[in-house]
Specification:
Helices cover 84% and strands 0% of the residues. The chain has 107 residues and is an all-alpha fold. The chain is elongated and about 70 Å long. Keywords: Membrane, Transmembrane, Transmembrane helix. InterPro entries: 2TM_dom.
Length: 107
């Protein structure tokens, strides 16, 4: 039974790593396209199609930004900076620090 749990845990871990890899690839593609669109805004001259090009570029930026935020949320479940492991590690660090201070104080 424990062997089955280990295999299941390994499969879940591999799936999570794959999701993170796909997210980072999506993010790199997003950054490349955003930089190209911003460069397009920089070099765009006044012309008969300026409004249409501006609208397409802006809607692409807004839409893709929404999708990248949704993808980030689904991948990291909103815990990108302060994960549960980080919280547990910090709590234990402070508990150990308080224990050390109590044992090393001069009375």
């Amino acid at each position: 039974m424990t062997e089955f749990n280990e295999q299941e845990s390994l499969i879940r871990a591999k799936k999570k790593v794959k999701q993170i890899q796909i997210f980072y690839l999506h993010l790199v593609g997003y950054l490349v396209v955003v930089s190209l669109i911003l460069y397009n805004f920089y070099i765009m001259d006044d012309g008969p199609h300026k409004k249409a090009v501006t609208w397409v570029n802006t809607s692409t930026l807004v839409g893709w930004t929404i999708f990248i935020i949704i993808h980030w949320w689904r991948t990291f479940k909103g815990r990108f900076l302060f994960k549960k492991e980080w919280e547990d590690r910090k709590i234990e660090e402070y508990l150990n620090k308080n224990t050390e201070e109590e044992t090393t104080m001069w009375e």
